[in-house]
Amino acid sequence: MTMSTKPLLSVVIPSYNYAGKLPRAVESVLVQATPEVELWVVDDGSTDDTPAVFAALSQRHGAAFQGVRQANAGPSAARNNGVQLAQGCYVLLLDADDELAPGVLPGLCERLRQQPDIGLWLAGHVAVQPDGREREHPASAVPVDPFKRLNGYLLDKKIALSHGACVFLRELLLERPYPEHLRHSEDIPVFAYCLTQRQVEVLDLMLARIHKHPGSLRHNAEAARKVGLALVEEVFLKLPASLQPLKPAYRAQRCLSLFRTCLLAGDESSARDYYREALRTDWRVLFKLSYSRKAARLWLRQGK
């Protein structure tokens, strides 16, 4: 790739204290990168040996390894920084503890070239458990209608999206940056936006190997409770009027999710508040029996 030719695809790896895992992620990209692919690694103020790892990777790969460091500001800021630096028409965001599947980039670039106006490409991934067990997860089928897409993602949970297993049109990520004030579920507003703005295509391949961790932030109850219902506002902030009718149902669902999270964390007062709010938002949540039974038992305990 000459200096005057922009890449087709930018792979962006945000990293925080993953010195031990980062080389695996970087190698998985550079070992198969075509001249159409560039790599950016954004270190989010790591306090481990990441600077030494950067130096070693730079020495090994030369200009192919592009690494920058920023003051610690969270994964959203690191991703946004990487998207700003990226020169590619498309962006693949890969977490530092994951890796690309072997040999996927040449075929992926061929598809990107063939259909240059796709807003979001969805692929499958291989989930790798801590004990080494692996399971393939093919990409979800996606409806043509944006309303049905959003419903399938937010409410029916039939469309699964994850970093490493999708490719974004870069301009969509510039239109809808990751919300930097959220430190949990910050990917959901971005996925919701990109899923509904342009055509979406499904790739019949496993794009990444995603390593599962039992203590990941998504399972961190305290982080979820800090975000609370602000997530609902953030998800719908930049969505068009045609998609806003889904907001009350998503708000009610979010209330129920926070009800369950608080219940599991032993915060019964907050759990009651969220269940009340779910009812205020949409009384039909009463028919979600698994939640209503838990709520009934909660109020019975309060009455004793």
Question: Can you tell me the CATH architecture of the largest domain?
Answer: Alpha-Beta Complex
Largest sheet, if any?
9 strands, mixed
Q: State the distance separating the first and last CA atoms.
A: 72 Å
Strand content: 15-25%
In CATH, what is the homologous superfamily of the largest domain?
Answer: Spore Coat Polysaccharide Biosynthesis Protein SpsA, Chain A
Mean pLDDT: 93
- Classification by helices and strands: alpha/beta
Helix tally equals 12
The whole-angstrom Rg is 21 Å
How many structural domains are formed by the residues?
A: 2
Low-confidence stretches: none
Helical amount among residues, as a percent range? 40-55%
CATH-defined fold name of the largest domain: Spore Coat Polysaccharide Biosynthesis Protein SpsA, Chain A
H and E order:
EHEHEHEEHEEHEHHEHHHHH
CATH C-level class of the largest domain: Alpha Beta
Tally of DSSP β-strands: 9
Morphology call: globular
Question: Would you mind describing this structure in some detail?
Answer:
It is a single chain. This protein has helices at residues 22-30, 50-61, 75-85, 105-114, 146-154, 170-175, 187-197, 221-227, 230-236, 247-264, 268-281, 289-303; strands at residues 9-15, 37-44, 66-70, 90-93, 99-100, 120-128, 134-137, 166-169, 200-211. It is of the alpha/beta class. The chain has two domains: 9-219, Spore Coat Polysaccharide Biosynthesis Protein SpsA, Chain A; 240-303. Strands 1, 2, 3, 4, 5, 6, 7, 8 and 9 form a nine-stranded mixed β-sheet that branches. A hairpin with a 5-residue loop joins strand 6 (120-128) and strand 7. Helix 1 (22-30) runs parallel beside helix 2 (50-61), helix 5 packs antiparallel against helix 7 (187-197) and helix 10 packs antiparallel against helix 11. The chain starts with 8 loop residues before the first strand and ends with a helix.
